[in-house]
């Protein structure tokens, strides 16, 4: 059996070790998704499989240090990308609201509890509105010519 490649944090080239790390992370998140699919509390959630896949992709995108948790900087980048920049104090408040283990980060399981659970949180609302904004019909192409009389 081949030895598993080890990831050197100082080696920014990635290669096999980085690819293996990403596969392992994705497999671990899939296992958590399966647990949520089998949990009776979430049976009534509409389109749960699709939502879990979306949440997994979002989580992987913002787990900047590939630790398996979203830290303050990952959360900051997520909220800035959504057009909702927050101060460091606000970020710490959001993390404290979601973090059940006291680690100071948001694990994938905590992320799913927040997104699928009944408790309303700031981050959940922001992500919800981001998806609603994507669904809104936006005009495409060049705006029609206007005359002075058509201006408000």
UniProtKB/TrEMBL annotation:
Subcellular location: Cell projection, Ruffle membrane
GO biological process, one term: ruffle assembly
Statement: the UniProt record of this protein carries the keyword Metal-binding: yes
Main location: membrane
Record-level GO cellular component terms: actin filament; ruffle membrane
PANTHER family tied to this protein: ALLOGRAFT INFLAMMATORY FACTOR-1, CALCIUM-BINDING PROTEIN B
Protein name: Allograft inflammatory factor-1
Organism: Mytilus galloprovincialis
